[in-house]
Write a structure and sequence with these properties.
Radius of gyration: 24 Å
GO molecular function, one term: protein O-acetylglucosaminyltransferase activity
InterPro entries: Glycosyltransferase_61
Organism: Bugula neritina (Brown bryozoan)
Order of helices and strands: HHHHHEEEEEHHEEEHEEEHEHEE
Keywords: Endoplasmic reticulum, Signal
Distance between the termini: 70 Å
Number of helices: 10
Bound molecules: 2-acetamido-2-deoxy-beta-D-glucopyranose
Structural class: alpha/beta
Protein name: EOGT
Length: 394
């Protein structure tokens, strides 16, 4: 009887510390890179017999923005077969492509982080922002929406002094250093974070809503448009790399949509790549004081020279690993099986719309004509939304 007591205790203690490896849920080629960024997990994996990623432990490959990442360990890299007349040299061209259209974006932003507010208190707040306030990460942050009155559906101007802040000393110089050219909605968080204020001791005592899980707040471009909305998703993905390579699904996403009500989105299926909880609109918290343990203000989709709206990408290069990673990540998380492309076959993709514009008028005829040809071997349809189907033919 006495013997069974310590045994029982051992079982309890191991089950408490055990990691649920299935939470990592990444494309298999990203797992070694992820573990490379999380040394503690890598060590844990090497000692835990249950860890399914043992074959990733030997690898030292990396996304390319990590401090310790060597050139020869890069996960994949772009090619620049044609020299650009905009570049001084081939190396210069490669570097420009890397820093503006590939994972170099993450290192460029990381180099430019500034501490906006810090505290020596153990439960104090902290806020850091990228040089033009296009990205911020904070802990113990209060967003006081009790008295705000948004005047537009997407209003970043309704926050006033004292309505965002924390218990920390604000470095006003950081705010003064931001370039006003980047102020507008979809370009930065300037108009929100410029009001960051040191709040009194009791500030986070009376929160109406407390987010104890990590939160991403984002500015969405037009959600009905695939091009624009994927700018949102790609920027959120880069944001997750930027904030210490974290891809947990157990977080909350709040869209900066200030008119109340829900958040509706024809590409709503995509959010499953980023969170297992429903996306909410900031407008649904108007009238409340909202407190965040950990919050990220994500890279907005229309940054000047940003990714990838209005993006002056240097010519002569192709194959960015960032977009490849994004594609693999999305396909993995949505568990989409792809039948093709097939070798020596031409794939035709038809966007079958039922919208006001850009419909194929003779879609029926085209369909019938193609389907009756004997060399058309595979046909798959995926429903992107009620209004849009994608049909692949081979
Ligand atoms: C940001 O990264 C930190 C680790 O440095 C992590 O604890 C936090 O959960 C992340 N925040 C979000 C919103 O993912």
């Amino acid at each position: 009887m006495l013997l069974s007591v310590p045994l029982f205790l051992i079982i309890i203690s191991t089950s408490v510390t055990a990691i649920d490896w299935s939470d990592i849920n990444l494309h298999q080629s990203h797992v070694p890179l992820y573990l490379q960024s999380h040394a503690d997990l890598k060590t844990e994996c090497s000692v835990d017999p249950e860890c399914p990623f043992k074959d990733s432990l030997e690898s030292s490959s990396c996304f390319g923005y990590e401090e310790s990442c060597e050139d020869n360990e890069l996960y994949k890299s772009a090619n620049c077969p044609d020299l650009s007349k905009w570049a001084k040299s081939a190396d210069d061209q490669k570097r420009t492509f890397w820093n503006t259209g590939d994972f170099g974006i993450v290192s460029e932003k990381r180099k430019n982080m500034e501490v906006l507010c810090s505290s020596s208190l153990e439960d104090g707040s902290y806020m850091e922002c990228e040089a033009e306030a296009r990205y911020c990460h904070g802990t113990n942050i209060v967003l006081d929406l009790e008295k705000v009155t948004p005047s537009k559906p997407y209003d970043t101007e309704f926050i006033k002094t004292g309505q965002i802040g924390g218990r920390c000393k604000v470095n006003k110089k950081v705010i003064k250093g931001w370039n006003r050219d980047h102020r507008n909605f979809l370009q930065s968080w300037y108009q929100v974070v410029e009001h960051f204020t040191e709040l009194p001791e009791e500030a986070d005592d009376q929160c109406d809503v407390v987010f104890s899980k990590p939160v991403y707040i984002l500015q969405n471009d037009a959600v009905v448009n695939m091009f624009h909305h994927f700018c949102d998703f790609v920027n959120l993905y880069v944001t997750q790399h930027l904030n210490s390579t974290t891809f947990s699904l157990d977080n909350h996403i709040i869209a900066w949509q200030t008119n109340g009500g829900g958040f509706s989105d024809p590409f709503g299926a995509m959010w499953k790549v980023f969170t297992k909880h429903p996306v909410t609109a900031i407008g649904s918290y108007v009238g409340k004081k909202v407190c965040f343990k950990d919050v990220v203000f994500a890279l907005p989709p229309r940054q000047r020279l940003g990714l990838f709206y209005n993006m002056p990408l240097i010519d002569g290069c192709y194959g960015t690993s960032l977009f490849r990673a994004f594609n693999e990540h999305v396909m993995h998380r949505l568990a989409i099986q792809q039948a093709g492309p097939l070798r020596d076959k031409v794939r035709i993709t038809i966007l079958s719309r039922q919208s006001q514009y850009r419909n194929i008028l003779n879609e029926q005829e085209v369909g019938v004509s193609i389907l009756t040809r004997s060399y058309v071997s595979i046909l798959t349809r995926s429903y992107v939304s009620i209004r849009l189907r994608v049909v692949y033919l081979y």
